[in-house]
Amino acid sequence: MFFFEAMPWYSVLMWFVVLGGLMLVNELARMSKWVSLFLFLVLPIILTFAVWPNTAGEGSSVGTWFHWVKVYSALAGCLGFMALRYIKGWDKNKYVLMFPAFILALNILEAVIRDFQVYSLNGIVDGVMMIGGPWNIMNGIAGLLNIITISGWMGIMVSKNRSKDMVWPDQLWFWIIAYDIWNFAYVYNCVSDHSYYAGAALLLSCTIPAFFFKKGAWLQHRAQTLAIWMMFTMSFPAFVGESKFAVQSSHSETALWVASALSLAANIAVFVYHFYKISKHKRNPLKVEVYTDLKAYQAVAEHN
Fold first, then answer.
1. Could you give the CA distance from residue 94 to residue 169 in angstroms, rounded to a whole number?
2. DSSP for 209-240?
3. Which residue stretches of the chain are H helix?
4. CB within 8 A of 97, min separation 6: which ones?
5. Quick check: 231 and 44 in contact, CB under 8 A?
6. What does the H/E/C string look like for 64-106?
7. Measuring CA to CA, which residue among 184, 231, 226, 192 is closest to residue 206?
8. Measured between alpha carbons, how far is 175 from 154 in angstroms, rounded to an integer?
9. Do 211 and 168 form a contact (C-beta atoms < 8 A)?
10. CA pair distance 202, 222, nearest whole angstrom
11. I want to staple 130 with a disulfide (CB 3.0 to 4.6 A). Which of 121, 135, 141, 288 is the partner?
12. What is the per-residue pLDDT across 186-226, written as a single tens digit (0 to 9) for each?
């Protein structure tokens, strides 16, 4: 295989189990405020004191600053989005509406910093094989472009259906795909032996619902599936690296180059298109939505 070593049938099957499990738990959280509060508030408190000090301590494959910051920032996103969805009037407050964009940008920036850090690392670090190189810089730049092209948070709304989803009409398919390619490259660059599950499976678990189940709610799906996955891997770190279901990276420099080159190309394309739309329609992305003239935007806005 190009990106990974050979994948036995049971690892392929487990990949689909992980994908389906993440999507299922995300749907349960969407449909119930109480399930969400247990998953994203009560459970993490229990795990923080009773489990993670033993499973995610120093020297473990998930014992780095990045994993601890990532799990709590994902949980902060879940709880913040719940507040926006369920507290009356918060979806109309312009300062509250900045929070989704802020937490999204912060999560991307955390990964960008880690990519730049891994550039100078080689060998086994915290139990993970690191192969630093120019691909880290390329992908870090792609992540910064991804942050710059976040737009339209002032148009975030809460859907009128029972699940009261946080819908972001200006966050359209091309930005999501560019994000997915960037994030896969990040995971492949920085935790390569975890990327079989934490790459495509985790990313598809929020992208599939955003494209087919509840359009416009990608960021809500992303925060919830990421938080669920991070809590699982911090509790059972051996699953992705040492269990019979683990699939190792090929550790190919060519694969690293390809992943980061695709990431950079995709995000440059979105960056150019983003500023073309801004220039053409003379829109200030800090004050108004950028893509209101597109059918994809209109479909999401009208449906909600």
1. 16
2. IIIIISTT-HHHHHHHHHHHHHHHHHH-THHH
3. 9-31, 33-37, 43-50, 52-55, 65-86, 98-118, 134-148, 173-190, 195, 202-208, 218-235, 238-241, 253-281, 295-303
4. 84, 91, 153, 154, 156
5. yes
6. CHHHHHHHHHHHHHHHHHHHHHHCCCHHHCCCCCHHHHHHHHH
7. 226
8. 17
9. no
10. 9
11. 121
12. 999 998 888 999 998 999 999 999 999 889 999 999 999 99
For residue 188, the SS3 value is helix
Residue in the block written with tokens 């619902």: 209
* Token pair of 266 as six digits: 């995709």
Q: Report the distance separating Cα 296 and Cα 172, nearest Å.
A: 7
Q: At what angle do helices 218-235 and 43-50 cross, to 10 degrees?
A: 30
- The owner of tokens 């969805």 is 85
Say which range, 18-22, 128-132, 165-169, 208-212, has the weakest mean pLDDT: 128-132
Side-chain half-sphere exposure of 85, counting CA atoms within 13 A: 27
Distance of alpha carbon 54 from its chain centroid, rounded?
26
Which of these, 129, 123, 16, lies nearest to 7 by C-alpha position? 16
Residue 228 confidence (pLDDT): 96
Q: How many CB atoms lie within 10 A of CB 161?
A: 10
